[in-house]
Design brief:
The chain is mostly helical. It has a domain of 169 residues: Vanadium-containing Chloroperoxidase, domain 1 (Up-down Bundle). The chain has eleven helices and no strands. The N terminus is likely disordered.
Length: 248
């Protein structure tokens, strides 16, 4: 049913990282859009995520080696999937596993919920990127810069590697969709993980960037589900799905 899944369902805890204890770097960045549901500072990335490894450190060097190994072993088919995932940075990349039966154009409450969630994960990821200011792999490794995976892979802005915005979106969307469709939770979560893995297949993020997106998404969805306004949107989407008998 779902192709190219990896076994990567990372634990959404800080213990999954084993990262450097260095302090987060600060850097100027464009102000992100405003959260609809959270107060300023309510989701502080410096209190959720450890700092990424410094450029040239043993951990960062090992992460670069993994990207080269993935580039050497990836198939054309898997790269094509990663290209598609890069281009479609919204919940439709996750919901596609259900085919046309879950066309969000037919479900206005679902569409509203995931449009607002997309804004929230974008705000959270941009705020975190501005705190940590990590170099992209292609900024550090001339080999990756000279041989990009694809023009379609979305190389991203410089100094914005950590956390991965695509991974944050993928995991957040998968978590919310899994709660809406609990009988299909495992395949939804697997697709979310596979979507995040595509950033490594593209060679535009490090492993810890993707793991950080996982942790950030977990914290974000947890906060959002505690907010009455977001929960009301979730409940409306849940009722909409139940009425169509797509989900219990």
């Amino acid at each position: 049913m779902i192709r190219h899944f990896t076994s990567f369902i990372a634990s959404a805890t800080l213990l999954a990282f084993g990262l450097s204890a260095a302090h987060a770097q600060t850097a100027p960045a464009k102000a992100p859009a405003t959260s609809k549901f959270l107060q300023p500072g309510e989701l502080d990335p410096s209190l959720i995520l450890p700092s990424p490894p410094a450029d040239g450190s043993p951990l960062a060097t090992a992460e670069l080696a993994e990207l080269h190994a993935l580039a050497a072993s990836r198939t054309d088919e898997r790269l094509a999937q990663a290209e598609h995932d890069a281009e479609v940075e919204n919940v439709t990349s996750i919901a596609a596993i259900f085919g046309p039966v879950l066309d969000l154009d037919k479900y206005p409450a679902m569409a509203k919920l995931f449009k607002d969630l997309r804004n929230e994960d974008s705000v959270a990821a941009k705020a975190a990127k501005a705190v940590f200011h990590r170099s992209r792999p292609w900024e550090v490794d001339a080999g990756l810069a000279a041989n990009p995976a694809s023009d379609k892979c979305d190389m991203g802005e410089p100094k914005s590697s950590y956390p991965s915005g695509h991974a944050t979106m993928g995991y957040a969307s998968a978590y919310v969709l899994a709660q809406l469709m609990p009988s299909n939770a495992q395949i939804i979560l697997a697709r979310g993980a596979d979507y995040a893995e595509s950033r490594l297949i593209c060679g535009v993020h490090y492993r810890r960037d993707v793991e950080a997106g996982h942790v950030l998404a977990t914290a974000l969805v947890d906060r959002l589900m505690s907010k009455p306004a977001f929960k009301a949107e979730f409940d409306a989407a849940e009722a909409e799905l139940a009425a169509t008998h797509i989900a219990p």
